[in-house]
Amino acid sequence: MSPQPARLRAAVVGTGAIARGSHLPALAEHADEVGLVAAVDVNPAMLDDFRAAAGTDVKGYTRLDEMLADARPDLVLLGSPPAFHREQTVQALNAGAWVLCEKPLCLSLAEYDAIAAAEAPGGAAGPYASVVFQHRYGSGAAHARELLTTGALGRPLVAHCQTTWYRDAAYYSVPWRGRWATEGGGPSMGHGIHQMDLMLHLLGDWTEIRAMAGRLVHDVESEDVSTALVRFADGTMATVVNSVVSPQEVSRIRVDCADATVELTHLYGHSNDDWVYTPAPHAAGDAARVRSWRTPAANRPSSHGAQLGEVLAAMRAGTRPPGSGADARRTVEFVAALYKSAFTGRPVHAGEIVPGDPYYPAMHGGDPAWAPAGAAGAGA
């Protein structure tokens, strides 16, 4: 791999709200390391608005292939609708660009493996593709993970992962939402995946999942609610709830360990103050130990900028970035297993969804008419 230039060149693909509201601030935060040189969108008006908001000399394109050939970016930030992620990620990788893609990186395990096959050809030190899981990043999450993985809180025992949000009918009027072929699933795939990824980041490998899903309100192809029971490799047991029908919106992770409970409560992002540590009665008297559990003085909120910094560091080093490879595939497999368990009515174990399994190429397993009798939109 050739040496990286002093300042990396970035391009944004898809110039909607996520690009303007999250990727532009992230790039500005790391302006000394990376500069935005190009943007791609099939909508010329949106493209012009984005270029104006960028406030720099950003060249606009309506075709990804033309941009890759002309601008030759080192890094592509993908904010396009999910149905395009696999194709655009592979296209960028084949052009030699690293990729940081909004969730979901792809719509199935088969698509994920196709992306992995396009990474680091011939054993090169890149390019690699990462998925935006910004809730992993920031000082609070890093501190909690260190405490959990080192056993500083005692053995993890019970966990809860909750994404209970609210989306109305207008939200689903966007043509690609609520459809298997264009979104890959409902709140399990498009909303709760952030908290579920954070849960796996904190607790490690899962081994078994038993799930349910339903369409309780919205007349869409995919679910609007899912629940699951999960067993982890170390024996930790967890509950998971994903919803887009909940008026009081909250995102929450809670882990009860032998010596303390750690809980994160937020909505779309967190800082140190959102992490709370409660000692068990037998540990409360050890003041020094309890103080060590508190989040660090440096307060780095979760954000696209926090993750982009990690990706840029990996690019400089020529190493696989976080949020990619087997680590990110574990999250995609977890979502596929949740759907398989919900739709088949039986437990699913890690590693069982392989080529030949109907849930390998599609999260719905080939049967979109899965809803129980009487559910809204059943058989749609």
TrEMBL record:
<dbReference type="InterPro" id="IPR036291">
    <property type="entry name" value="NAD(P)-bd_dom_sf"/>
</dbReference>
<feature type="domain" description="Gfo/Idh/MocA-like oxidoreductase N-terminal">
    <location>
        <begin position="8"/>
        <end position="119"/>
    </location>
</feature>
<dbReference type="Pfam" id="PF22725">
    <property type="entry name" value="GFO_IDH_MocA_C3"/>
</dbReference>
<dbReference type="InterPro" id="IPR052515">
    <property type="entry name" value="Gfo/Idh/MocA_Oxidoreductase"/>
</dbReference>
<dbReference type="InterPro" id="IPR000683">
    <property type="entry name" value="Gfo/Idh/MocA-like_OxRdtase_N"/>
</dbReference>
<dbReference type="InterPro" id="IPR055170">
    <property type="entry name" value="GFO_IDH_MocA-like_dom"/>
</dbReference>
<feature type="domain" description="GFO/IDH/MocA-like oxidoreductase">
    <location>
        <begin position="143"/>
        <end position="262"/>
    </location>
</feature>
<dbReference type="Pfam" id="PF01408">
    <property type="entry name" value="GFO_IDH_MocA"/>
</dbReference>
<protein>
    <submittedName>
        <fullName>Gfo/Idh/MocA family oxidoreductase</fullName>
    </submittedName>
</protein>
